[in-house]
C-alpha cells in the first residue's frame, strides 16, 4: 500500500514523497528511509526498490530531495549535500513518530549521491540500525578528477569563482545542465554517455518533474564533499555496500578501496554492470533480494 505524504524539515522546507506499508499486518513495522542521487527524483526506480522492501514487511519512506521534484525549496536545482544529509535525519524523525512505525528499527538506503549521504548519516545518527549504500559517491574531489578533463579544471574553477562573485552582488545562481543533450562537449555536471542515456531515455515518461539543470554551486559543493571519510565511524551499525564493477560515474575502484576502511559488520555485493544498470534488470533481481535480506537480518520483520 502506498500513499502520498509530506513532512517539514527542521528549517521549514516541505518534502514530499511516498509512504509504503506492508499489505498485511498492522505494525508497528520496521522502516527504511530512501532518497535518490544527484538531481534524480523518486520516480527513477526508487518505487521498484520500495515496493520490494514493503513486500518483505517494511514500511518505506521515499521522498524527493529539497529543491527537486515534488519537494519544495529554493533555489530550484540546488543540491547541497549537507542539507540533504540533515533532511535524511529529519525524515527519520518524522517517520519514527508514526504509530505504525517501530522507531527502534530504522534503516536507511541511498544510491549514487545519496549513497554517500547514508554513509554520513549512519556514522552520525545512532537511531539508524542498518544501512545500504548502492553505487555510492565516495569522494567528490577524486570523482570530479575522473569526470572532468585535466585541461578543463582551471576553467571550471574560474566559473565557480565568477558565480560566487555574481551571487555576492545579488544575482541569481548560475545554472548548468546535468547531462549533455546533443554534443558531448556541452558543459554539464555529469558528463558521461550513460548519464545522458538514463536521464534523457524512457525514464522521462515517469519522471516528469526532473529537470536537466542544477545550480553551478551544486557542482562546486560536489567537489568539496567527502562522505567516504565517515566509513570507519559507521560501526557498529551494519553496512551493506553495493558496487557496480563497470561504474565510471561514481567510479568502482574508489568504492572498493573505501569498503576496506569500513569496519564490521559489513557486506559487499559487486554487480557486473554499470552505474545506472544497478537499478534495473538482472542486477535488480540479484541486488534487491540481497538488500532486503540485509535489512531483515538486522531490523527483523
UniProtKB/TrEMBL annotation:
It comes from the Bacteria. Pfam families: Peptidase_S15. Keywords: Hydrolase. GO terms for molecular function: hydrolase activity. This is Alpha/beta hydrolase. Residues 11-277 form the Xaa-Pro dipeptidyl-peptidase-like domain. Belongs to the AB hydrolase superfamily. Gene3D superfamilies: 1.10.10.800, alpha/beta hydrolase.
Amino acid at each position: 500500500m502506498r500513499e502520498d505524504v509530506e513532512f517539514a524539515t527542521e528549517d521549514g522546507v516541505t518534502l514530499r514523497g511516498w509512504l509504503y506499508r506492508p499489505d498485511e499486518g498492522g505494525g508497528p513495522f520496521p522502516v527504511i528511509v530512501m532518497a535518490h542521487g544527484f538531481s534524480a527524483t523518486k520516480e527513477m526506480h526508487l518505487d521498484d526498490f520500495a515496493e520490494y522492501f514493503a513486500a518483505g514487511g517494511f514500511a518505506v519512506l521515499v521522498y524527493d530531495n529539497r529543491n527537486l521534484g515534488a519537494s519544495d525549496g529554493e533555489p530550484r536545482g540546488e543540491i547541497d549535500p549537507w542539507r540533504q544529509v540533515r533532511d535524511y535525519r529529519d525524515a527519520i524523525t518524522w517517520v519514527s513518530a508514526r504509530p505504525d512505525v517501530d522507531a527502534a528499527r530504522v534503516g536507511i538506503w541511498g544510491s549514487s549521491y545519496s549513497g554517500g549521504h547514508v554513509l554520513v548519516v549512519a556514522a552520525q545518527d545512532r537511531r539508524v540500525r542498518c544501512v545500504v549504500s548502492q553505487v555510492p559517491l565516495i569522494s567528490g574531489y577524486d570523482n570530479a578528477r575522473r569526470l572532468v578533463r585535466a585541461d578543463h579544471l582551471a576553467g571550471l574553477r574560474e566559473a565557480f569563482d565568477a558565480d560566487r562573485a555574481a551571487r555576492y552582488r545579488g544575482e541569481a545562481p548560475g545554472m548548468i545542465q546535468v547531462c549533455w543533450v546533443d554534443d558531448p562537449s556541452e558543459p554539464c555536471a555529469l558528463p558521461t554517455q550513460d548519464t545522458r542515456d538514463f536521464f534523457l531515455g524512457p525514464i522521462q515518461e515517469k519522471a516528469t518533474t526532473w529537470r536537466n539543470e542544477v545550480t553551478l554551486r551544486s557542482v562546486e559543493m560536489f567537489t568539496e564533499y567527502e562522505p567516504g571519510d565517515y566509513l570507519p565511524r559507521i560501526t557498529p551499525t551494519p553496512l551493506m555496500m553495493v558496487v557496480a564493477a563497470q561504474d565510471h560515474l561514481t567510479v568502482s575502484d574508489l568504492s572498493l578501496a573505501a569498503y576496506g576502511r569500513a569496519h564490521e559488520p559489513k557486506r559487499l555485493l559487486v554487480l557486473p554492470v554499470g552505474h545506472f544498470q544497478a537499478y534495473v534488470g538482472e542486477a535488480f533481481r540479484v541486488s534487491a533480494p540481497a538488500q532486503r535480506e540485509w535489512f531483515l537480518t538486522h531490523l527483523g520483520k
